[in-house]
């Protein structure tokens, strides 16, 4: 298969799709691809044209020294360029087009910025015109690029593999991959977790141990030592690594900051642990002279003075406004990549706690599902609640409002009618929101508890699929006081619910698809079921005598439900390295949400012989799709919301 890569300079390049990266799928917890004509088989299915993108996680920030006040921050699969000359009022300058994956790291050297865009490899921007940075080079990586460090004229780049890549940047606008360095077979490292440079040595934190490389020949690093993690590192769930001349600092997920002496560069020695209360969820690290800046996805940002490495001194602990994924000090500012909180800026003064100065937030955390009504899209965000997005101009989508209540579970799905939204809110049950003023959603009522994953409005009732305890039915005649009127826990954990005529189709996960007769809504009757093909059956939608199933790693399944008591599989379309989680029909076309790869387009003009006719590669993957006329919206997880025109 192939996909077209849309770069920030608008040039379109056709490239082969390398892989479908298997992102970790919790139970509930551009090179954007646009299908090129040469990629699709002939057929009636519509092709997709990219219109725009909104939201996405902020995992990386960087401050330019060559162009004072210029800050780059990640926004899903884009880079946003900001002027923070006045930290209280950051000025938006521009943003890139969609890159090939989530922006994981940004490194600025002089007038050039090197962006690690995961599946999109490295994208190089020339910052000479700060108002209109341009892409001058891209480098593709077999396993993506998720981070990098610099030594002289070389970058050392990590990925989801047991290797790192050496890149020559002596000609900054024309980087060259020099070598891929594999860990020796005898070393117990499955992946490069993080890397740091100190002196003439490169330190690699793997999943099993450290490996120390000599950079005496920077284009050809050589192993100097393998160092087992000490007992003080606990389970050694390393999340970050940073170094100064004599100190190597590690962020360990459960333990927080660990400090090691590297006076002997090839024999790091444990010195101290700077563990405070609630250190779990430690994220990345940065260094500012003798200060270690530790990010924590739950508890914010902490800074430690390491002037005496044996006794790290806590300088400040900054509660999280958003999730602190990375933080760095630039002059008198602390700059934080805060996930759905966007970029945050804090003023620093010696002896005082940081003070929030300002920020930029047009971000989201992880878009799971999307519902479109009129000119508004309602995005169910895994941990950032419900995002209301104005999509009247899909090329310039902007957030209109947000509902997020501290302590609430994950928003997984919603339906809206007459400006009232019904939200499947995970462990917080069903939440009913008044959306008459989308800039200020008001909660009318919470209802129930469980693991609510999907919701379907049906007249004055709402069906709710519970991933742990079956199917619920609520009377929502009075939206401010919904009442549970029926439930069936014997159906098992459910991922989805949809209706066609008098039949309900339930995605029962590892049990496949169940069909209920609801002609008497007070007494639903189970008619039949069809076993799953893959790990889970996530969603099903019916048209006529056929039901179309999002069948996870088994792909796309067609069932004959003419006799609902005995549904029969008639076809299955399997895709390599795919995980299908949603299916939406439009005429004789099915659009599939592939959590590993993007959007798959299937011609179902003959349901017995479905044909794959297109693939849109999205670096973050896609979990939900909504279609309104010729507008298709994709909930692209950490990549935010992406809009396409169907043609």
Question: Which descriptors would you attach to this protein?
Answer:
647 residues, mainly beta, Methylamine Dehydrogenase, Chain H, 4-stranded antiparallel sheet, 0% helix, disordered N terminus
Descriptive notes:
The chain is mainly β and about 650 residues long. Among the domains are: about 185-320, Methylamine Dehydrogenase, Chain H (7 Propeller), CATH 2.130.10.10; about 365-580, Methylamine Dehydrogenase, Chain H (7 Propeller). The protein contains no helices and 59 strands. The protein has a four-stranded antiparallel sheet, with no helix packed on it. Strands 5-6-7-8 form a four-stranded antiparallel sheet, with no helix packed on it. Strands 9-10-11-12 form a four-stranded antiparallel sheet, with no helix packed on it. Strand 31 and strand 32 form a beta hairpin. The model is unreliable at about 1-45 (pLDDT under 50).
What's this entry about, in short?
The protein is mostly beta strands.
Structural class comes to: mainly beta
Beta strand count: 59
Helix share bin: under 10%
Low-confidence stretches: 1-45
Q: By CATH's scheme, which homologous superfamily of the domain at 367-578 applies?
A: YVTN repeat-like/Quinoprotein amine dehydrogenase
Strand adjacency order, main sheet = 4-59-58-57
Morphology: globular
The CATH topology annotation of the domain at 367-578 reads as Methylamine Dehydrogenase, Chain H
β-sheet strand percentage: over 45%
Task: Measure the end-to-end span.
Answer: 20 Å
Largest sheet: 4 strands, antiparallel
Oligomer: single chain
Give the radius of gyration.
25 Å
């Amino acid at each position: 298969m192939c996909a077209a890569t849309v770069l920030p300079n608008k040039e379109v390049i056709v490239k082969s799709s390398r892989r479908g990266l298997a992102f970790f799928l919790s139970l509930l917890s551009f090179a954007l691809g646009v299908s090129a004509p040469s990629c699709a088989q002939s057929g009636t299915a519509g092709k997709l044209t990219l219109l725009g993108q909104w939201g996405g996680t902020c995992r990386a920030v960087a401050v330019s020294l060559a162009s004072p006040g210029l800050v780059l921050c990640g926004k899903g699969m884009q880079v946003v360029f900001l002027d923070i000359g006045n930290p209280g009022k950051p000025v938006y300058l521009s943003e890139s087009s969609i890159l090939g994956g989530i922006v994981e790291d940004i490194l600025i050297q002089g007038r050039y910025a090197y962006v690690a865009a995961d599946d999109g490899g490295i994208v190089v921007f020339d910052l000479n015109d700060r108002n209109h940075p341009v892409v001058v080079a891209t480098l593709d990586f077999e396993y993506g690029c998720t981070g990098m460090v610099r030594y002289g004229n070389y970058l050392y780049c990590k990925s989801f593999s047991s290797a790192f890549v050496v890149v020559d940047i002596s000609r900054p606008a024309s980087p060259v991959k020099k070598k891929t360095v594999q860990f020796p077979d005898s070393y117990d490292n499955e992946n490069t977790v993080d890397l740091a440079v100190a002196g003439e040595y490169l330190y690699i934190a793997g999943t099993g141990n450290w490996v120390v490389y000599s950079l005496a020949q920077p284009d050809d690093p050589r192993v100097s030592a393998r160092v087992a993690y000490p007992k003080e590192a606990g389970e050694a769930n390393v999340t970050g690594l940073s170094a100064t001349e004599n100190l190597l600092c590690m962020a360990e997920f459960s333990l927080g900051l660990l400090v090691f002496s590297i006076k002997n560069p090839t024999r790091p020695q444990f010195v101290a642990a700077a563990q405070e209360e609630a250190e779990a969820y430690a994220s990345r690290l940065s260094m500012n002279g003798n200060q270690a800046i530790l990010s924590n996805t739950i508890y914010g940002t902490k800074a430690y003075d390491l002037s005496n490495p044996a006794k790290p001194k806590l300088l400040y602990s900054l509660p999280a406004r958003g999730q602190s994924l990375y933080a760095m000090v630039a002059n008198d500012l602390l700059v934080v990549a805060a996930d759905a909180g966007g970029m945050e800026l804090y003023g620093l003064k010696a002896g005082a706690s940081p003070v929030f100065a300002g920020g930029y937030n047009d971000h989201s955390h992880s878009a799971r599902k999307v519902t479109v009504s009129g000119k508004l899209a309602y995005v169910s965000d895994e941990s950032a609640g419900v995002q209301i997005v104005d999509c009247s101009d899909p090329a310039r989508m902007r957030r209109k409002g947000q509902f997020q209540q501290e302590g609430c579970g994950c928003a997984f799905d919603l339906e809206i009618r007459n400006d009232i939204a019904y939200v499947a809110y995970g462990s917080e049950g069903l939440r009913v929101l008044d959306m008459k003023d989308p800039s200020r959603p008001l909660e009318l009522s919470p209802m129930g508890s469980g693991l609510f994953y999907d919701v379907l409005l049906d007249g004055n009732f709402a069906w709710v699929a519970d991933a742990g305890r079956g199917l619920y039915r609520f009377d929502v005649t009075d939206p401010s006081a919904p009442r549970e009127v029926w439930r069936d826990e014997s159906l098992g954990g459910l991922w989805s619910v949809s209706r066609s005529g008098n039949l309900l189709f339930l995605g029962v996960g590892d049990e496949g698809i169940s069909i209920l007769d609801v002609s008497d809504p007070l007494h639903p009757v189970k008619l039949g079921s069809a076993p799953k093909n893959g790990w889970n059956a996530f969603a099903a939608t019916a048209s006529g005598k056929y039901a179309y199933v999002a069948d996870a790693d088994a792909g796309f399944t067609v069932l004959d439900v003419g006799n609902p008591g005995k549904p029969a599989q008639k076809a299955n379309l399997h895709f390599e390295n795919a995980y299908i989680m949603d299916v939406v029909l439009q005429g004789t076309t099915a659009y599939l949400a592939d959590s590993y790869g993007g959007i798959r387009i299937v011609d179902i003009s003959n349901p017995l012989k479905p044909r794959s006719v297109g693939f849109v590669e999205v670096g973050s993957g896609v979990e939900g799709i909504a279609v309104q006329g010729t507008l298709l919206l994709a909930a692209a997880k950490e990549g935010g919301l992406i809009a396409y025109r169907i043609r």
